[in-house]
Design a protein that fits this description.
By secondary structure, the protein is mostly helical. The chain has one domain: MFS general substrate transporter like domains (Growth Hormone, Chain: A). It has helices spanning 11-33, 39-46, 50-78, 80-100, 104-118, 120-132, 138-155, 158-167, 169-190, 216-224, 227-258, 263-291, 295-314, 319-333, 336-345, 352-380, 395-416, and strands at 386-387, 390-391. The protein has a two-stranded antiparallel ribbon. The protein is globular and about 65 Å long.
């Protein structure tokens, strides 16, 4: 006879389960943003231009995006614990490969391996949240996930630059590999997929549901039959893709060349964008929950983000005004938390992992497309100027590259106007 359950899990235990998964997402974001502060070392050491650098950074996104749907489906069938453990282990291997890469080919392979492995983090976090937290906290927890990711991104700013200047980028990436391996071990020992495994009642009404045996392709087809899923997948391609392109790669070299800043100051400014993005995540998610509606706030914040990017790209802003503008721009761009909550509410709860995987492809697809596209545009407008073996781009080249950001965000605004309102209520069918 099974032991009676002790009631719902305590908050501290719930946050521990979620937090270990969130640590892998923190590492994922750190790895995602790290190339931004070592662009000069990478371009000089591997003798590459902007297009090749954008492609090197984007190798992370190529495999990350490709893994999202398989990750979501497997999370629904097998549970997040195994995925998080394996993901952290492979991420450690990829980080070590990148740290020791003798050529650009091996560096690309390391980035590809990192992206594929950390791709499990976000979907697994959301799956854990649906079991360990009540439904009314889902938008808040999604926002906290963004916060954890941005902490990783900020650590890949000024702190990483200081460490790289002191020890070199290869040793630091090697240490990152070791820490990720330790996280893999801790996850296996401590994380459980559902409170039932610790003797507590689950927040999922159907109980311990990760063993759902809906055929994979049928489950995916069912998720894709919902219009909101398509919209929640495509909208972040522009909104979040813009943040990943600027803060994740091109912001630091842009600020260094257009405003004559040193690398640490440029990294600090791009980190400002990420910090505002982190703060906006939980606040916008909670705000939309309080309003009882998702669409109005999603539309408003996307429109404001577009206005901000238009100003950054096409107005001759002094540095102080640019930095000031990045704060509300980053805050509004965190509206992806509204989208994740809306996606979850638009489909049956048993398909949460698959839906999360589909929707999480959007922001990473944006980074995957925009980072190399901006680099390609920069090389097209390059006038031939070099500085210490690194290409220097004029103001018109940067404007041409960043115009792509404005186009992507404008398309996102059109798409979000087409979403169906969920009124913050979970679909039961």
């Amino acid at each position: 006879m099974s032991k009676p359950l002790r009631g719902l899990p305590p908050a501290a235990l719930a946050w521990l389960m979620w937090g270990l998964g969130a640590l892998l997402y923190l590492i994922a974001f750190y790895q995602r943003v790290a190339p931004a502060v070592i662009t000069d070392q990478l371009m000089g050491e591997f003798a590459i231009g902007a297009a090749a650098l954008g492609n090197l950074s984007a190798f992370y996104f190529y495999s990350y995006v490709a893994m999202q749907i398989p990750t979501g489906v497997i999370a629904d069938r097998w549970g997040p614990r195994k995925l998080l453990t394996l993901g952290a282990a492979v991420a450690a291997l990829g980080s070590a490969l990148f740290a020791m890469a003798p050529t650009l080919w091996w560096a690309n392979a390391g980035r590809l391996l990192i992206g594929a492995s950390v791709a499990v983090a976000f979907v697994s976090m959301l799956k854990l949240a649906s079991h360990w937290f009540p439904q009314r906290h889902y938008a808040l927890v999604s926002g906290m996930a963004i916060l954890m990711g941005v902490i990783g991104g900020v650590s890949a700013g000024v702190p990483l630059r200081l460490l790289v200047e002191a020890f070199g980028w290869r040793p630091i990436m090697g240490v990152s590999a070791g820490l990720t391996a330790l996280l893999s071990l801790a996850t296996w020992l401590l994380v459980r997929d559902d409170p039932v495994e610790r003797g507590y009642a689950s927040h999922v009404q159907a109980g311990h549901d990760h063993g759902d045996r809906t055929p994979i392709l049928r489950g995916l087809a069912e998720v894709l039959s919902y219009r909101n899923i398509w919209i929640m997948f495509l909208t972040p391609v522009g909104v979040v893709g813009a943040v990943l392109a600027f803060a994740g790669l091109w912001g630091v070299p842009y600020l260094r060349q257009a405003y004559a800043l040193d690398a640490k100051s440029a990294a600090l400014i791009t980190s400002t964008l990420l910090v505002a993005w982190a703060l906006g995540g939980p606040l916008l998610g909670a705000w939309s929950q309080h309003l009882g509606r998702r669409k109005p706030l999603y539309v408003l914040t996307t429109a404001l983000a577009l206005t901000g990017w238009l100003a950054v790209v096409f107005l001759p802003l002094p540095l102080w005004l640019l930095v000031t503008l990045l704060v509300p721009l980053g805050f509004c761009s965190a509206n992806i938390t509204i989208g994740f909550a809306c996606a979850k509410e638009s489909i049956p709860l048993r398909l949460t992992g698959t839906a999360s995987g589909v929707c999480n492809m959007g922001p990473l697809l944006g980074g995957m497309l925009l980072q190399p596209a901006i680099g390609w545009m920069l090389d097209r407008h390059w006038a031939g100027q070099m500085n210490s073996g690194v290409r220097v781009y004029a103001a018109d080249a940067w404007q041409a590259g960043f115009t792509l950001i404005c186009i992507f965000v404008a398309v996102s605004l059109v798409l979000i106007c087409l979403m169906r309102e969920t009124y913050c209520k979970q679909s039961l069918a």
